[in-house]
Design a protein that fits this description.
There is one protein chain. Helix content is about 50%, strand content about 20%. It has a four-stranded antiparallel beta sheet with strand order 3-8-10-9. The two termini are about 45 Å apart. The protein has 16 helices and ten strands. Bound molecules: (R)-mevalonate. The site of (R)-mevalonate has 10 residues, from helix 10 and helix 13. (R)-mevalonate (MEV) binds next to helix 10 and helix 13. Belongs to the HMG-CoA reductase family. It is an enzyme of class 1 (oxidoreductase).
Length: about 450
């Protein structure tokens, strides 16, 4: 059968599946059964999920776990996490417990400004363009009133619009650089709608600006789009305690551990290879909550990594210090999140997550997400600088290995028992299981 198909999107779901399994699979009936096994038994729920995207044929599950015992600014939370990587939720929970016993996390929203740009080409006098911009600036606000009215009622709206000259980098290239406050919504639709209206206003008004010549009247808008780089939509999460309280067990010396930890973070501040992995550990926590609360993890990832490079070198997002006998560990992270609109009102499990978090405002969610990232980072760096990462990681992963090899309940108990105090690797587990079965 050909692998090229016209009008695929017009086929029914059943026809799409048939085409897929017959084109690509050695056992079409079995593959079809698998795809359908993941359908929800509730037709309504399945329809809801089908309609989130195009060409849906089934659902792709991710585990949804929870990390209890987070104390943030004195308030208790159980944090929802959607993630496939074993040990992430356990690590977050352990870090939450550790810091819960030391006063909890503090979190502060530093700013909530979002950004959008209209990129355009203008051939002519920059002074005339500046005069034109100053004259028509009120019209950008006026002609977007129908969209901004509701946002303003909620305390948000367009904050400012600036004309930026980028011609030193690209011939004739200018921008309208606009800032927004979108309150509890992530605001992508609001911002993009405003920007597209700014673009129209720009082009139309240029036609009527008397001092422009013919070339100048023909402003060419290249594109209008929000930016996922939001360095001024920033939240800080932090923890601190006496250095002497840093260890939980007599095998680890508090001072030595605290100093080692600070050095590990400093290494990630100056060494990009380490910084990327260090920040990946932070994103293990961040992405999991972002997903579970129906936010756009790609946008968050893009913005966070750009922020990590803001000095021109990719660096750690978190920082640590010891001063006057106090260990302090903190993160500043840009998070453009929403708790209304988008998937937040559509996906039943997203609603569930938000209710479990006490239906937070976007600012409160920024704090929760940043804290989870910090907790995750703490857990990873603690393991790395004490026992090594593999111990905890493989302990969690052992279950995956056992499932892969269809271990019975009895086999699982025996294997888990054996590896309680022994080094774990994939092959050691498989060998042990093979021996058991002999
Ligand atoms: C693994 O998913 C994350 C870590 O590599 C993070 C780190 O190295 O800090 C453990």
């Amino acid at each position: 059968m050909t692998q090229n198909i016209k009008g695929f999107s017009k086929l029914s779901k059943e026809e799409k599946i048939n085409w897929i399994v017959e084109t690509y699979f050695s056992n079409p009936e079995e593959s079809k059964k698998l795809v359908k096994q993941y359908w929800n038994t509730s037709e309504n729920l399945q329809k809801l999920h089908d309609e989130f995207i195009e060409n849906t044929i089934t659902n792709f599950y991710l585990p949804y776990g929870v990390a209890p015992n987070f104390i943030i600014n004195g308030k208790h939370y159980t944090v929802p996490m959607a993630i496939e990587e074993s040990s992430v939720v356990a690590a977050a929970s352990k870090a939450a417990k550790f810091w819960g016993e030391r006063g909890g996390f503090k979190a502060t929203v530093i700013n909530t400004e979002k950004i959008g740009q209209v990129h355009f080409l203008f051939k002519g006098s920059v002074e005339k363009l500046q005069d034109f911009f100053t004259e028509i600036k009120p019209k950008f606000f006026l002609y977007t009133e129908s969209f901004t009215k509701n946002m303003q009622k909620r305390g948000g709206g367009i904050l400012d619009i600036q004309l930026i000259d980028k011609t030193s980098e690209l011939e004739n290239y200018y921008q309208l650089h606009a800032t927004f406050n979108t309150k509890d919504s992530m605001g992508a639709n609001f911002i993009n709608t405003c920007l597209e209206q700014f673009a129209k206003t720009l082009e139309n008004e240029a036609q009527n600006f008397v001092s422009f010549n013919e070339d100048e009247k023909n402003i060419q808008v290249i594109m209008s789009i929000l930016s996922n780089y939001v360095p001024n939509c920033l939240v800080r999460a932090e923890v601190s305690c006496l250095v002497e309280n840093m260890s939980e067990d007599e095998l680890i010396d508090s001072k030595e551990f605290a100093e080692k930890f600070v050095n590990a973070v400093k290494i990630a501040e100056i060494e990009p290879y380490r910084a990327v992995t260090h920040n990946k550990g932070i994103m293990n926590g961040i992405d999991a909550v972002v997903l579970a609360t129906g936010n756009d993890f790609r946008a968050i990832e893009a913005g966070v990594h750009a922020y990590a490079s803001k000095t021109g070198q990719y660096r750690s997002l978190s920082h640590a210090e010891i001063e006057n006998g106090i260990f302090r560990f903190w993160i500043d992270i840009p998070l453009a999140l929403g708790t209304v609109g988008g998937l937040t009102s559509l996906h039943p499990l997203v609603k569930f997550s938000l209710e479990m978090l006490g239906n937070p405002s976007a600012e409160e969610l920024m704090k929760i997400v940043a804290v989870t990232g910090l907790a995750q980072n703490f857990a990873a760096v603690r393991s790395l600088t004490t026992t090594g990462i593999q111990q905890g990681h493989m302990k969690m992963h052992i279950n995956n290995i056992l499932n892969q090899h269809q271990a019975t309940k009895e086999e699982k108990t025996q294997v888990l028992d054996y590896f309680k105090n022994t080094a774990i690797s994939h092959s050691l587990v498989v060998d042990y299981l093979d021996n058991l079965r002999k």
